[in-house]
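Fold it.
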Amino acid sequence: MSIAYSPENLRLGVAIERYRRPPLPLIGVENGAVFTALTSLFGRSGVEWRRCDVRTAEMAKHALNGFLAMTITFGNELGNLCDELGVDGHRLADLLKLEPRISSQAMLYPGLGFSGGTLARDVQTLRAFGKSYGLEIPLLDGLWLSNHSQKQIVIRKLKKYFDGDLSGRKICVLGLTYKPNTSPLRRSAALELISDLETEGVEITASDPRVDENELTGYECFLFYRDPHDAIKNVDAIVIMTPWREYLSLDFRTLKELMGGDLLFDTANMLDAKRVTEAGLFHLAIGDGKVLDR
């Protein structure tokens, strides 16, 4: 009997496509005949598979996600600096990706940070290896701390906008699922934010186009509405957490009329800031360099 390992990197919503065209076509196996059999099994994808030993293949999976987590964290820290310096961090990311050594696919756009899924698990695995062998790994340790801090970016920006106090404010969270085009709430950054908002004394409403409402059982700290227009009535601010395409077609003038305040916090930087501003709303993103001293 032989053991083989392929460092899959499936993603919710595109698992079949990732199976057909794996981004890291690698098989760890000692037996050459088993490698040939497996490449024949996966050969329908037309991908050239690489072979290594099992332990190297396993380490490749942890290292890949650790590297992706590192680029995300670096982009977020650059974005935080850009917000203080009045620089557009998203434009900066576009320019950096012109450099071949960085690549056009680098995950450098400022955002919310990675959540408790695959990236977090593999970063923690690498940190655990370091601890078990008595190795200092300050880069990975710092990456973990930085990402944990980044999860508070929405609260920090909201407090800055509202002069330091959120108590008594009414805020609508648009998008509850882990990512667009999926229904699970597992690893939802929106729910983490809602928990933090509740702690700050905020009255919370929420909406999502596809979330399974049965999964919302037990979440009593916010009112859920399927129609976002019902959720934003009289709120002081809207925070878009999951970048559903449905939010691109929102009528921002209607939103402004329904709201009590004027802040639209676009954490995914998915909206046309000019359109939002022309509707009378204050568009805020992460890493856009917009100064909040109003």
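Residues 69 and 107 are 9 Å apart (CA to CA).
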